[in-house]
Design goal:
Helix content is 18%, strand content 27%. It is of the alpha+beta class. The chain has one domain (19-56, 145-449): Purple Acid Phosphatase, chain A, domain 2, CATH 3.60.21.70. Strands 1-19-17-18-16-15-14-13 form an eight-stranded mixed beta sheet, covered by helices on one side. β15, α8 (341-353) and β16 form a beta-alpha-beta unit. α1 (29-43) packs antiparallel against α2 (168-174), α1 packs antiparallel against α4 and α3 runs parallel beside α6 (240-249). The radius of gyration is 21 Å and the shape is globular.
Length: 456
């Protein structure tokens, strides 16, 4: 992605889509909304450019959750032993898990909590040698719904965020988001120096509104070029091991690629499974698994992992996400799926040959938000939709909102995130995607049913 530009918005419009009805998506929305509103009001006097005293620790952050387990992340300022106390509904302790913060991991801790009940809420607190460090009603997590049962969930997606206070993070919670997916350039690092990468991650996770959100909202992430290391960079980047180390230290995903390579991962949250691809680490490091005359984007192992994961998925909707967009940016840069169209087309063919239903693509990166509906009926069996959401920050690039024959709508607008509802309690199951602007500027939405993303 090229450097930030402060420019005005521009719109290409092929088709009008009516705004969908807004729904409350969780039984605990009232509590979550009140917490978000309270946090927002406390932070209202903090201007984006003002200095603020940094906390003595970073986090906590709820990371990966499933229906039976959860990861809780925390970074104290000092090394040593720290305990995570899981609390029952009445406030008594369910269990205590101890871990050691080590200097070689920049004091970052991730506690893994297993043996939980699906769709349940647990409180937690954190203590160290000097007593309790973290406690209060905003420190809790909810396990995912049972994937075998019908449910209704709401997820937030976003990319390209600055390390400064922003009410958008509070808005996500106010709008009922139960989970957060960071699509890359979250944060901007633009260095392969390990100390710089660690510092940028700390600053990002200390943004007050984001810190409040992730203290009780499951959070996953992948990276794009600026948090991988350099603008428009690929797997040949020297020093990428350092940015990977910082990423692994400062995220609590279920997994991070394979054999200390890459960061791809996946998770299921009720009726939706999300596949977070790594489109940086392996790019141009070997020949493509689908065309040996061309360089790869995903690499052989990630390619095989994705195919196996898609075949195994039973979720009505399958979101394949990454930092870059799934077509051509049509500029001088090469970091897009248009450059590696042979792997994208092979993915379409694989989906079609194996009759994998419910696939939707999500990307970020370009400082524009767009919805495209591709003519993939012949190769896939149904039209593939791409949702592009960018940026969270205030810098847009209208020239990348280019015309495209499959463009439904696109606009370069600052402070945008994607609100995605998935409801399998209806028949057929429905996915509702809404592009949300922080200041309430009207955007657009789309509703897709499981029947529309299937094989007749």
């Amino acid at each position: 992605m090229i450097a930030w530009q402060n420019v005005s918005s521009n719109t290409w419009l092929n088709e009008d889509i009516p705004m969908g009805a807004k729904q409350n998506m969780t039984q605990n929305l009232d509590r979550r909304s009140m917490l978000a509103i309270t946090a927002a009001s406390l932070l209202a006097t903090t201007s984006e450019g003002s200095d603020r005293e940094l906390p003595k620790f970073t986090g906590p952050m709820v990371g990966h959750v499933s229906d039976v387990d959860a990861n809780i992340w925390f970074r104290p300022d000092e090394p040593g032993e720290y305990s995570l106390h899981i609390l029952k509904a009445d406030g008594s302790e369910d269990r205590v898990i101890t871990a050691t913060a080590k200097i070689e991991n920049d004091n970052c801790l991730t506690w893994h909590v297993s043996g939980m009940h699906s769709g349940s809420q647990y409180g937690y607190k954190i203590s160290g040698s000097n007593g309790v460090l973290v406690s209060g009603e905003k420190y809790y997590f909810e396990t995912a719904p049972d994937p075998a049962k019908a449910s209704k969930v709401c997820l937030a997606f976003g990319s390209c965020a600055a390390n400064k206070p922003l009410e958008l993070w509070s808005q996500m919670e106010q709008r009922g988001s139960q989970a957060l997916v960071l699509l890359g350039d979250t944060p901007y690092i633009d260095s392969t120096d390990l100390s710089v990468a660690r510092q940028r991650h700390r600053e990002f996770l200390q943004v007050p509104q984001l810190a409040s959100l992730i203290s009780h909202t499951p959070t996953w992430g992948t990276w794009d070029d600026h948090d991988f290391g350099r603008n428009d960079s690929d797997g040949r980047l020297k020093g990428k091991e350092n940015t990977r180390q910082a990423f692994v230290e400062y995220r609590a995903n279920k997994g991070f690629g394979h054999d200390r390579s890459g960061i791809y991962t996946k998770f299921q949250y009720g009726p939706v499974e999300v596949f977070l691809l790594d489109t940086r680490w392996f790019a141009r490091t070997e020949t493509s698994p689908v065309d040996t005359k061309q360089p790869t984007l995903l690499g052989r192992k990630q390619w095989e992992w994705l195919k196996e994961a898609l075949l195994a998925s039973t979720a009505p909707f399958k979101l394949i996400t990454c930092g870059m967009i799934w077509d051509d940016k049509e500029n001088s840069e090469s970091d897009d799926w248009g450059t590696y169209s042979y792997e994208r087309d092979a993915l379409y063919e694989f989906i079609g040959q194996n009759k994998i239903s419910g696939v939707v693509l999500i990307g970020g990166d370009i400082h524009c938000s767009r919805h495209l509906k591709y003519d993939t009926e012949k190769s896939v069996g149904y039209p593939i939709h791409q949702f592009i959401v960018s940026p969270i920050h205030d810098s847009t690039i209208p020239k990348l909102n280019v015309p495209h024959p499959n463009l439904v709508r696109g606009e370069a607008v600052p402070h945008v995130w994607l609100r995605l509802e998935v409801d399998s309690t209806q028949s057929p199951a429905r996915l509702h995607a809404e592009w949300v602007q922080m200041k309430g500027r009207p955007m657009w939405d789309v509703t897709l049913t499981a029947d529309e993303l299937s094989f007749g």
